[in-house]
Amino acid sequence: MIIVFRPTKNYLKHLPVPDFDVFLTPCMMKEHARMSKKQEMPKLDMSRCELPCPAGTSRAGDKVQWRKAIKNAKAQNEHLVMRQINLELMEEYAPESYLRRNKELEQLCTEAERELRRTKEQVMEIHARRKMAQLEAGRQLKELEGSWVAMVTNNYRLVGSHR
Question: In this entry, which stretches build a coiled coil (predicted)?
Fold first, then answer.
């Protein structure tokens, strides 16, 4: 049977009432308002991924606009190449690292459970020792009380016999 401690008084009454409004940033309030109106999230802006041709450029600015477009295309291509490399590396090494991390977490959990079990055993041992000490003290108190009653009774007899 497990005995659960149920507090009888409010241990937090000396603390101020928490202010949960500090978490309501303008962005959070805007999102809550959007969700309460049952509106969909705005779609992602994919214009960064597009490579538009410089249209409607004059003859003089044509080369400059095309150079900007080529520079943008190279930057986006490099970004996509890096993403592809990262995905390949993750595909190769991530499962092992996740398994290793899961094993570490399981070991930590096992150790924490073992420590908890040890602590509970120590608590139960302390309770048992305290109970034994209290029972022994109770036995001694009964003996001393019996001795005291016998002495007081003896004193009354002695006082009564001298009268």
Answer: 102-129
- Distance, CA of 122 to CA of 130 (rounded, Å): 12
pLDDT of 113 above 90: yes
Q: What is the pLDDT of residue 6?
A: 80
Helix (H) or strand (E) holding 158: helix 62-161
The model's pLDDT over 46-88, given as tens digits with 9 standing for 90+, comes to 877 778 777 766 555 678 888 888 888 899 899 999 999 999 9
Instruction: Write out the two tokens for 74.
Output: 């190279």
Contacts of 131 by beta carbon, 8 Å cutoff, 6+ apart? none
Residue 27: both structure tokens together: 């962005």
Q: Which distant-in-sequence residues (6+ apart) come within 8 Å of 24 by Cβ?
A: 32
Is the whole-model pTM more than 0.70? no
CA distance 45 to 11: 51
Written as six digits, the tokens of 26 are: 């303008």
Question: Which token pair is 108?
Answer: 């930590």
Degrees to nearest 5, angle at CA 134 with 132 and 139: 95
Q: How many residues does the chain have?
A: 163
Would you call 162 helix, strand, or coil by DSSP? Answer: coil
